[in-house]
Amino acid sequence: xxxxxxxxxxxxxxxxxxxxxxxxxxxxxxxxxxxxxxxxxxxxxxxxxxxxxxxxxxxxxxxxxxxxxxxxxxxxxxxxxxxxxxxxxxxxxxxxxxxxxxxxxxxxxxxxxxxxxxxxxxxxxxxxxxxxxxxxxxxxxxx
Length: 143
Known about the structure:
globular; mainly beta; six-stranded antiparallel barrel; two-stranded antiparallel sheet
């Protein structure tokens, strides 16, 4: 007996309101060239290929932690730089170092976080979770 996940798909579909693009470095690091003045590996341009675009969501993993210091005053710890990308299960499986770009938003009233539009994120962990309707990966801001 198969489970009917159409209700869950509709509910989750409401949060997938960011236009996302997934890019992959086709040659990996094998085609990068050493810049002898900076000591950095530089990718030849263009080096990435678009592997998917569609609706998803990029959200912070959590909010700043509020902790009590020893002297009793409350301090806020800095928030994590990690985000999570929520993708439909139809999106291809991503690999570490793939890049997700927030290309826009279809959210009525504007994007959830306007500062994320145009930003690029590096996939850092693909094993966060895959569920019947979504796949979640951990990403980090790169630009």
